[in-house]
Amino acid sequence: MTTFNALLLDKREISPGVFFLTFENGKQYALDFKAGQYVVATIPTAQGAVKRLYSIASSPLDTSMFNLLVKRVEGGIGSVYLSELLPGKTITLSGPAGLFSLQESPTHKVFLATGTGLAPIRSFLSTYKSMRCSLFWGVPTIEDAGFLDYFKEIRENNPLFDYYICLSRETLETLKQAQNEVVFFPGRINVVMELYLGPTLKGQGKNQFEYYVCGSRTVVDSLKTYLFSLGVEKSNVFFEKY
Ligand SMILES: Cc1cc2nc3c(=O)[nH]c(=O)nc-3n(C[C@H](O)[C@H](O)[C@H](O)COP(=O)(O)OP(=O)(O)OC[C@H]3O[C@@H](n4cnc5c(N)ncnc54)[C@H](O)[C@@H]3O)c2cc1C
User: Which residues does the UniProt record annotate as the domain FAD-binding FR-type (predicted)?
Assistant: First the structure.
């Protein structure tokens, strides 16, 4: 892993408390990564530096910049620091690192992510633009669902991509009131996934997918347990735990 200083070019709050950061690449140092990998951020504190890991949320095909997607955890050392970093400032990063990557096979990919677990999946979607894939992204409410224009654009360019934004704190009733778009579904990821891939999941077809799971340790563990309970083979499940 190489250590380098990365210049922050832009920072956007894409939904409450979730920040999309754009760093310059290729000028001072060229970060050469594979879709799905992460960087290690060195966070200065009064007690000394601490390290935090962040998945790269953009494609290695774009060599001029890279993105991170950071959820601000109140009282959290790394996430608060990054959410308050101003464009024009630099941060020390090391990387790339990590083995979470996409199998380059024609197999239909099923992406299961919650919150900022979307970051490496976004890197996959931005890199492999014609793969057959389904995204089930879990966030609590409509307000938390950023990137709608991004998903729309990916879908317009890839008819083999479908996506379902799974809203754990919404109900059919609240969604109706919000006159939402068709991509929103009330409920947790596994419930929505079963609804849309149901017949295939119950038969032999479940092992015709590759599953990529990313999110907090608890979420990843429970989704893995769920997939295995359906009879999905371990060799078809790839995951990154935050
Ligand atoms: C491989 C890998 C990739 C990762 N990629 C990302 C990424 O792309 N985006 C991202 O935002 N994070 C990512 N993380 C998590 C990230 O590394 C930090 O753990 C996270 O930002 C919290 O760090 P912190 O320093 O802000 O909080 P800390 O100072 O470590 O913790 C402060 C308090 O908050 C609690 N806490 C920690 N995380 C959470 C949470 N998510 N929700 C609620 N409470 C919490 C802790 O238990 C503690 O009590 C990744 C982790 C790994 C292992």
Answer: 1-103
